[in-house]
Amino acid sequence: MQITFINVGYGDAILFRGSGGFAALLDGGSALESEFSGDPYRVRAADYLRRESVTKLDAVLISHIHEDHVCGLEAVFERCFVKRLYVPYPVEPFLGGCELRPAPDAFRSVPLYTNALNAYRRILLRAGEAGTAVTVVKPGDAFCLGPELTAQVLAPKPRTVRAYMELVEAAYASAGQEAAVTELLAKLDAASNQTSMLLRFETGKAVFLAAADSCPREWDEVPSFLLENGNVLKLPHHGQIDSISEQFMRNMPLEYVITTASSDRRYNSANPQVYQSLTQWRPPHPPKFLFSDERSYPPYFSQPDGFQAITLKIDSGGITPEFIKNT
What we know:
Elements: E1 2-6, E2 14-17, E3 23-26, H1 33-36, H2 45-51, E4 56-57, E5 59-61, H3 67-70, H4 73-79, E6 81-82, E7 84-87, H5 92-95, H6 109-130, E8 133-136, E9 142-146, E10 149-155, H7 158-173, H8 178-191, E11 198-203, E12 206-210, H9 225-228, E13 232-234, H10 246-249, E14 256-259, H11 272-281, E15 288-291, E16 296-297, E17 301-302, E18 309-315, E19 318-324
Parallel strand pairs: 3-5, 4-6, 5-7, 7-8, 12-13, 13-14, 14-15
Antiparallel strand pairs: 1-2, 1-18, 2-3, 9-10, 10-11, 11-12, 16-17, 18-19
Helix pairs in contact: 2-4, 6-8, 7-8
């Protein structure tokens, strides 16, 4: 099994590949031109799949609705046949909704969120047209993605999703009322991270916790035994300061910690305190830190030649990272 973290700049796009041509994708990064222009190493998820000759995906999983996780998936659905789509939200309210637009003077994150909400709805519509099966998942659900890969949903909390969906339905009901829609979109943007899936994958010797933007403050209802043996962690929230918790992470036997922040470390992502704390919590064997869009992060990481993806190869011998450069 291989788990590949595609360098989409600030965002998540995680590709799983296994025997028999199995392929699955968790999130798809951004669709913003500014995220990729002028950078020889960042690559759109759909372009990376094209270069890897991936035309069929056994599964796509969408962690939550934010531009840097959802919008790049539209191009993926255009070029790939997707057998099944896993989402954390009820489908019907989105299918019965419409394209929304915030006020021109809305705070910058609100139109970005709106782009993601509209893209998410279009993806659901395309899935229906293409015959893609859509499965709504919740905490406690476990499923087999492929012959070597199982997944279990640990978050978000159902009541959090219900509250979020009330806002979604209110936003669609307010379509055409610019001020009301903008206010609701701002609330949805602020609440979306709390609806993010926390997924636990098992394959070979790896227990991979893919946290998207599900931060530890949302994990209080997760059974502790499902977290304690995680040895690969995709840091939540791009390594911002709220991405860690001593309560949960001190006892994790972490071998690799991956950060999907942009190299400009915007929004205080890839926060140095995060890596200092994780190192202090795991003496004398701290985890190895990998960064999907950094070339140097002293003293934790150095890959001066640049790369477009990091692949963790998982087999009977353990976990081995490989840097993919395919410009």
